[in-house]
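Person: I keep going back and forth on a fold encoding question. Show me how you would write down a chain together with its backbone fold. Please set it down just below, with no commentary around it:
Helper:
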Amino acid sequence: MSGSRISYVHQYFTTPDSPGGGGTRSYEMARRLVDDGHEVHMITTDVDAPRPSWRWSTSLVDGIHVHALPLPYGNEMGYRARVRAFLRFAVASTWRAAAARPDVVLATSTPLTVAVPGVVAARVRRARFVFEVRDLWPELPIEVGALRHPVAKAAAMALARFAYRHADAVIALSPGMAAGVAAHGYPRERIAEVPNGCDLERFDVATEAGAAFRAARPWLGERPLVLYAGTFGLVNGVGWLVRLAAEVARLDADVAFLLLGSGREREEVETLAADLGVLGSSVFVEGPVPKAAVPAALSAATVASSVFTTTGMVDNSANKFFDALAAGRSLLINHDGWQADLLTATGAGLVLPPGDVPGAARALVAHLRDEAWIASSREAAGRLARERFARDVLYASFAGTVVPAHAPRRPAATAGGSDGAA
């Protein structure tokens, strides 16, 4: 099959060199599509722009044509400001995605509003439409209270059904997400499960990288280190880690917790750590680092963490979980679900009880000082990364879903005609 032209709609696209860090799944998959002879146009935003604009910028990043709309965004923004950003991008990206004259339009959520440019651009160009589900929307924002008004809930549910109804295929990042999509009536056989993956070469760093990371922080030295590298958001559970750290400090004051990231809950997290008397002694908070700097941080860590505050995240496919596996680091999580089952079955980490912080602290301290467990769990983590979640292994399923041979094209959209629902 000759190369296809792909419009890849991802509102918050990042690369390993992006200053704020973030997941690089779209970058990794897009550059592999380019290596396979496809032409990829990434439709995204410049979140660091000083002000919104309708003027697109274009650049070539490792063969990917990146089209960026200046549109500031941050986790600390309020609900209405976020919705305005989502809608502005949905309008502008529709025509940008269509202008690339794609054979395939791939839209990856969140936000769910990327379905609009995905569907419309695909219909205008008679292209294949693939929708990637990174989180179950609107189920998740409804559970955490971000969507409360009945009209907003109904509109979000209608948008989800609109996306699924028009998708030629759906990519889900976990078994639970796949089940959630199927619950809307979408054919299970057209859903591909492609979780986030492990970039093995990127995380295979020399031990000197971890040593240098520790040396740059005089407070760290040889202390056992629990690392969190991610967003300080409503569902991320960073406050739970602070409470855990306070309990751990009572048992073993030498254990350190380093929290790397930013977000709307960061000030609250620091205040909590100060109130509990652990800020600057057991808990240390630093800003986000580029993805390229995460391997060194993980190399320095004794245990990496991926925690949440809501049961809605049991189906998550968090980047930090897979980054830890790629680095061969033991994992700490505080929720049930497929990742908990995986850690329990393989011994690659700890599943701590979210409702029993003192009990979680006792379990963690016992394992942090168990050199045999550290060694075996790291070995299990690395084995999972190589055998089940290597990015190149997952890419085969991803590419086969996005650009399958002989993919049927939809009829052209006509005024007053059928909506072409699947």
